[in-house]
Amino acid sequence: MSTTQVPVKKVSSAAKVMVVEDESIISLDIKNSLLRLGYTVSGVAVSGDAALRKIKNNPPDLVLMDIHIKGEMSGIEVSQQIKSDFQIPVIYLTANADNSTFQEAKTTDPYGYILKPFEEKELGIAIEVALNKHQKEREVAASERWYATAFQSLNEAVIATDPEGSVVFMNTFAELITGWKLAEALNQPVETVLMLQKQIQQFDDMSTAEVTRSILTAVLEDRTTASLPNNIQLITRPRTAISLSGVAAPSTAIPIEGNATAIIDFAGDVIGGLFVFRQMQTGPVSRSQTDSAAPPQLSQRQAQADASKDNNVPQADDLALIKAFTRAFTKGQSVLLSTANLVAESAANSTTLTAKSEGIIINVKKINNKLTAMVKRDSIYWEAIRYTLIEHSFFPVSQRTNGTQYYQYRAIPEQCQIYYTSAIALWEAWHGKMSDQIQRQSSWVQPSRDKIIVLRRGSWYRIQQLILSEGHLHINTVGGEVFLQLEDSLIWGIQAQYCAL
Question: What CATH number should be reported for the domain whose range is 16-142?
């Protein structure tokens, strides 16, 4: 190999390169060339196994791989593992240019292929091309993840197609409203997944496939964005989820609104289409329809908050699903249930409850080997959810700044009556009075103060002192202090006279 120095623009002057070569003289020559070119040599390995160990301990930015490395693993096999386990670019080095070896090497998508002997200039250029290509691929992958995450967070359904109209992406909301999973929908014609029809009678002769395809064709040909037609309906896929009645739900026509747009790349070419849509609001739900099914602990303050959200309170079948969902995950059972507004389903490592208007509102998984329910506090189902969780001995243990509250199972102390009330009810109980909230929940026996306990950060503590000052309740326990406004909710209990905490 020539030692002529050639200035090459580096992706990074400190880029680390590993050499996998079983000929010591050749590996030393390559190492010296790399150093002259301004790279750092992260290591030299004489076998595939040694290379994998060194990569794990000190990952390089690029690997120079002798394609015919000695050992149990060939250079091609080692490269395959490097690609799958570490996502590090590999350039093959070989003195054998036969076609069969080249074809086999191509299957691993190498970033370069250099024939020995080679000039130092060739090596430097090949490394820079590989590093630049890998960097661009990472940027594209990061951008794709960013956009995918952004689309997943939208409170609208999103379906993307390629220029021929085959589905290439759909977010969670689109999965819920159409009844299709992304894995099933990929490469399907968009009209198979997004089945649209017009409500107006004179358009009934147009099939759902024709409606969807005509909308997509128009925006792609005009390279524009267009609103979906008025009076358009989505025909959902016949449900694979089981309804609360135990019968698979049939196809449903859902009025939707939204738009379709052409996706155009930097070169001005149309590379696909995008449908963004949502279920149309059909009017507020009457509170009288749902009050009888609501938990008795729905506070007046929460009721007012719900009313301010266009009376969008949970319906009876939603409350029943929340209870069925909670019973299932607390018993370790899989669940697949749905209503018009909610979908409960189990996956490999989690169980989720998703509201079609909000996204995931409960995500249940094991955290530090403890079953944990992460609940979205600003959900319209918040009060019903936390009341149901508490019924199953799942109590709040922490809260995140994003408004998510974490619930975990906590055993209720022996012979203890648990109450979920406002802070004022605890203050009244401390002074021997029975509030209306307690009267609605259970029978009442005036407690001694040393038997009143409160839940603080997931643990039960006896109350040592209560202080009421300027509308705030200060609760002093051996486990710390709690400060509440009188209308704030909390969980507390009264133990039987002869029970220990």
Answer: 3.40.50.2300
